[in-house]
Amino acid sequence: MAPRFSYRFYGDSTLSGERHTTEAVRRWWQRSFRLMPRATFDVLDIVVSGSPRNTSIATAVAVHGTLADGSSYENIFNQFMHMSGAALPRSARWRTPRYCNGRWTG
60 and 26: one domain? Predict the structure, then answer.
């Protein structure tokens, strides 16, 4: 995670609130899995815009699980992220393969 960030969970539940440290987010996820130990997450959509040095990312994710009292929980949540100053190491950069003169290159 970045040195400075904000992780906010909206609503009026026991998980609601805003976290600003890696430790606080770790504790939040631990609590989430105590409340819903077998939660499953299905990524519904991911939208990415911008360059590696100025990237905006949005996700839509469905969560399904059973709460401690046996009732089921379902929700769709969105995450919005912004990365700035990131650069991929040269070995991680993707190349677009090309078919030229009967063989693939790139």
Answer: no
